[in-house]
């Protein structure tokens, strides 16, 4: 299961629904793309938030999945196909490509960001 940035942000903000949803997946199956990891880091406002996210990552996630050639090529194909019609952004393309490359579902609250990508399995989180 690939956790999207929005789910991680809600969890770190202490939203019970996010904690419950993340807990429904075993730790060994909880992964995050490097892009989502970077997006959450970017949103940290102080040292405490940064450290809390780092502790959460170490304790609750199986892996931060790095970008590789296959993920990058797939993200480019997704962008070329959908950028004009959907105004799809590069970060979401890389997150989707990570889930596709790993044959894992994507847990997200942003259905409209991803629901048009063939083969991408979504698990929709409702905060």
Count the helices. How many? 7
Number of strands: 5
Computed CA radius of gyration, to the nearest angstrom: 14 Å
> Which superfamily, in CATH terms, is the homologous superfamily?
5'-nuclease
How does CATH name the architecture? 3-Layer(aba) Sandwich
Largest sheet: 3 strands, parallel
Going across the biggest sheet, name each strand in turn: 1-4-5
CATH class reads Alpha Beta
The dominant shape is: globular
What percent strand? 5-15%
Q: Quote the distance from N terminus to C terminus.
A: 18 Å
Order of helices and strands: EHHEHHEHHEHE
Number of domains: 1
List the helices and strands and how they pair.
Layout: E1 2-3, H1 5-12, H2 16-23, E2 31-33, H3 34-43, H4 47-60, E3 63-65, H5 69-86, H6 90-102, E4 106-108, H7 111-114, E5 122-124
Helix pairs in contact: 1-2, 5-6
Report on the architecture of this protein:
The structure is a single chain. The chain has 127 residues and is mainly alpha-helical. The chain has a single domain, classed as 5'-nuclease (Rossmann fold), CATH 3.40.50.1010. The protein has a three-stranded parallel sheet. Helix 7 links the parallel strand 4 and strand 5. It is globular, with a radius of gyration of 14 Å.
Quick summary of this structure?
This protein is mainly alpha-helical and 127 residues long. It is built from 7 helices and 5 strands.
List keywords for this structure.
7 helices, 3-stranded parallel sheet, two-stranded parallel sheet, Rossmann fold, 5 strands, 127 residues, 59% helix, mainly alpha
């Amino acid at each position: 299961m690939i956790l999207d940035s929005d789910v991680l942000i809600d969890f770190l903000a202490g939203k019970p629904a996010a904690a419950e949803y993340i807990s429904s997946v075993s730790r060994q199956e909880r992964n995050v793309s490097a892009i989502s990891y970077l997006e959450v880091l970017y949103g940290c406002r102080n040292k405490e938030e940064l450290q809390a996210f780092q502790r959460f990552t170490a304790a609750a996630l199986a892996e931060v999945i790095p970008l590789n050639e296959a993920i990058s090529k797939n993200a480019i194909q997704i962008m070329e196909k959908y950028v004009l019609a959907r105004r799809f952004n590069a970060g979401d393309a890389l997150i989707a490509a990570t889930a596709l490359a790993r044959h894992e579902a994507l847990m997200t609250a942003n259905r409209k960001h991803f629901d048009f990508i063939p083969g991408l399995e979504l698990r929709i989180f409702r905060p």
